[in-house]
Amino acid sequence: MRVMEIMQKLPHDKAYLAYLPFPTELCTLCAGRTRKGLMTACEHHCMAHVIRHGRVEDLAKEMGKKARMCSGA
User: Fold this and answer.
1) pTM given for the model
2) How far, in Å, CA of 45 to CA of 1, rounded?
3) Which band of pLDDT confidence, cut at 50, 70 and 90, is reported for residue 57?
C-alpha cells in the first residue's frame, strides 16, 4: 500500500488534509491470505480499522449502517 497525502483548500485560508491508502502495482490484494479466509495484511494491521476488503455489495451494506458524521470531543 502507498499512502497518498491529499490537501483540499477550504475557505478562510484553511486546509483539510487527508491520508488515503492506495494499492501499488505490487499489491495482489493478499490473494493467498483471502483464499484461506484471512484478512488482507493492510486490513489486519490498520490501527484505525478503516481499511476493509471484500465484495462491493457487502462493503456498501456495512457503510449504510455507519453514521454519516462524527462529533469531536
Assistant:
1) 0.56
2) 12
3) very high
